[in-house]
Amino acid sequence: MEEERKTVSVGIKPLLRVLAREHEPVPPVWMMRQAGRYLPEYRAVREKAGGFLDLCFNPELAAEVTLQPVRRFGFDAAILFSDILVVPLALGRKVEFTAGEGPRLEPLADAAALTSLHETIDGKVLAPIYETVARVKSQLDTKTALIGFCGAPWTVATYMVAGEATPDQAPARLFAYRDPENFARLIDLLVQGSIEYLVGQLKAGAEVVQIFDTWAGVLGPQQFEHWCIEPTQKIVAGVREQVSGAKIIGFPRGASAMALPYVQLTGVDGIGLDWTYPRGIARDVLQPRATVQGNVDPLALLAGGGALDREVDDVMKELGDGPLIFNLGHGILPATPIAHVDCILRQLDATPSYELILPASLAEAFVGWLTHAAAPYGYEVLAPA
Ligand code: CP3
C-alpha cells in the first residue's frame, strides 16, 4: 500500500541565508529606522510611552513598535527598538532626548571626566532591552530574523564627547588628536561594553547584530583604521568568542574607499553601504568578500515615483546577482510616505519558498535531523506543514 505523503517546508530565514553568502533571487529586505515616526502606529505608542527612553526601556511597548513595521510590510527582519546611546547610559552617563532636538549627554570634556565612567556596563540598566529581544523573538514567524544592534565605539564616543549631535564631530576628533591615549581608553571601554551588550542580545534571541558607525565617514584613513576598523575588529572577535559563528553586519557610513579594508580586517559577514558608494564597485570589490546591504538613498524613498523606481532597479541590476540584503543607505526619514515603502516591496516581489515532498514517515525524521544539523550554524528550520 502506498504511504501517505506530507509536505514539509524546509528553509533557513532568508536574511541568514544571504549572510551565509548564498544568493537569493529576491533579496531579503528590511530598512534602517523601519520603526519610527513615519508610521502612525509608532506615533501612537510613542505618545503613550512618554519619553523616547521610556519607550526604549519598556519591553512591552518596545516589542510592539519593533513588530509594527514587520506586521505592516512583511519585512524579512525585525530590528530591536532601542538606541545606540543606552550604552553610555549603562556606563553611568546622563542621557536625555528632548523632543525635536535629539540626544543630550553630559559632555566628556577631558581625561578627568573619563574617571566618572563605570569600568563596565551595568547589566541591570540593559536588562529590559534583553527582555524586549526575547519578547520579539517569541512573536516572530519562521521567516523573519531578529536583528540586535549597538553603536560603534567611534560613533558613540562622538556623542559622549560633544554631548550632542554635531555637524562634523569636531569635539571627538579634537579629543582624539590632542589626547590619543585617553581617547583610546574611552574607545576600549566602549569596545568591552559593546561586546557585552551584543552578547546579551544574542543570548536573548537576536540572530544577527549590526554595528552602526554612522560617523565613520568624517575620519581620515589613518584615523579610520584606528578608531573605526580596530575597535570593530575587536568587537567582532570578542562577540564570536562568546557566541561562536555570530552573524554580524557593519555599517561604516561614509567609509568610501575604506570599505574594502573594513571588510577585510573586521571580519564582518555583511557591510551596510550608504547611497554614495558606487554599486558597481561594491559588486566587484566587496560582494566577493562579504554580503552587501543597502543602499537606496532615503531621499529617493521620500521622493518616490521614477526616482525611487530607478534606485531600486539600479540596486538590483548592480548587486542583485550576489549576496544582497536590500535596504536603504541610511534610516527612513520621518516625512516618508508609507505608500513609497510598499512600492519598493512590490518592485522586489514576493520571497520564494522551498518545499520537499517526502513520505510522511520520513518527513518528521528529516526535519528532526535538519534542525539538529543546522543549529550550530544558527539556522532555524521552518516547521513542517
Ligand atoms: O527601527 C530601527 O532602526 C531601530 C531603532 C533605532 C533607533 N535609533 C530609534 C530611534 C536604531 C537602530 C537607532 C540607532 C541610532 N541612534 C543611531 C545609528 C543609526 C543612525 O540613524 O545613524 C544613532 C546615531 C542614534 C542616536 C540618535 N537617536 C539620534 C541622533 C536621534 C535623534 C535624531 C532623530 O532621528 O530623532 C535619536 C532618536 C531616535 N532613535 C528616534 C528613533 C525612532 C526618534 C525619537 C522619537 O521617536 O522621538
Characterise the protein shown here:
This protein is of the alpha/beta class and 385 residues long. The chain has 2 domains: 1-25 and 352-385; 28-339, TIM Barrel, CATH 3.20.20.210. Helices cover 50% and strands 14% of the residues. It is built from 17 helices and 11 strands. Strands 2-5-6-7-8-9-10 form a 7-stranded parallel β-sheet. It has a two-stranded antiparallel ribbon with strand order 1-11. Strands 3-4 form a two-stranded antiparallel sheet. Helix 4 runs parallel beside helix 7. The two termini are 23 Å apart. Bound molecules: coproporphyrinogen III. Coproporphyrinogen III (CP3) binds at residues 32-37, 46, 52, 79, 81, 83-85, 97, 102-103, 149, 151, 165, 212, 214, 331. Coproporphyrinogen III (CP3) is lined by residues 32-37, 46, 52, 79, 81, 83-85, 97, 102-103, 149, 151, 165, 212, 214, 331.
